[in-house]
Amino acid sequence: MLNLFMPIFHLSVEDIEPNHFVAYVFELPGCFGNGATMDEAIARVPARLAARLGVSDPPQLEVVEVFTSWISEGDYRVNAFFEADRPPLTAAEVEEGLELLIKSRQALMQVIQKVPKDAVDRQDERAARGSITGTLLHIANAEAWYFDRLGLALPREQLPADALERLEAVRTHTLSTLPKLAGDARITERQGEQWSGRKVLRRTLWHEGDHTNQIAEIIRRD
Predict the structure, then answer these.
(1) Residue 91 included in any domain
(2) Tens of each residue's pLDDT in the chain, 222 residues
(3) Computed over its alpha carbons, how large is the radius of gyration of the chain?
(4) End residue of a domain, out of 38, 56, 80
(5) Interior angle at CA 98, CA 93 and CA 101, nearest 5
(6) 39 and 111 both lie in a single domain
(7) What is the C-alpha to C-alpha distance for residues 207 and 29, in angstroms, rounded to an integer?
(8) Residue 3: inside a domain
């Protein structure tokens, strides 16, 4: 039975890359569904949302915005800047974001600990960057790149070569930088794409969570 007292959760959906749609629950940062089609991405949200809320009844969902990516000069794919990305983060939202980032990293490390040592550097076409090590470097590099969109990236010379050390260095920088974005209304534009502190947090949580799920699936199938 549908719980009529449960609030409606609002989804913003984008085709972040070809054949990869993401449906974000903006009331709950880090909660998303993804799939090869928009319908598939949306269909995966209820179970993840229910798990996040600790409820059994399916939540009510409403799609409020759909963004279609496009290619700018230099073959750069411009991804979504939703209206929900526009307001500056509040101090309370930053505090929640810090807690979510810590939990997200814990989830990733728990998955990594299950990877056999001989599989970490092994070439694997199922991994996002050819291997699990490559994927970990990609997670760290993307997080640094998101903050670079706001001019707040960790300098390149401070990025360790080792994948786990790079993850740690970038995340340490993120945790120290995010509080500075509370109340910061800046919106920047790079290569035709707009960025805000709220969008940087959204993308960071999504990206790490998405690849954590991907690595977990590789382990499960091996």
Answers:
(1) yes
(2) 345 466 899 999 999 999 999 999 999 999 999 999 999 999 999 999 999 999 888 789 999 999 999 999 889 999 999 999 999 999 999 999 999 999 999 999 999 999 888 877 777 778 677 799 999 999 999 999 999 999 999 999 999 999 999 999 999 999 999 999 999 999 999 999 999 999 999 999 999 999 999 999 888 877
(3) 17
(4) 80
(5) 120
(6) no
(7) 12
(8) no
CA angle, residues 125, 31, 219, in degrees to nearest 5: 30
Shared domain check, 173 and 112 = yes
Question: Alpha helix (H) ranges present in the chain?
Answer: 38-43, 45-53, 91-112, 132-148, 163-177, 197-221
28: Cα within 13 Å, side-chain hemisphere: 20
Domain coverage including residue 118: 85-221
What distance in Å separates the CA atoms of residue 95 and residue 164, rounded to the nearest whole number? 25
Residues making up the chain, counted from first to last: 222
The counts of H helices and E strands in the chain are 6, 8
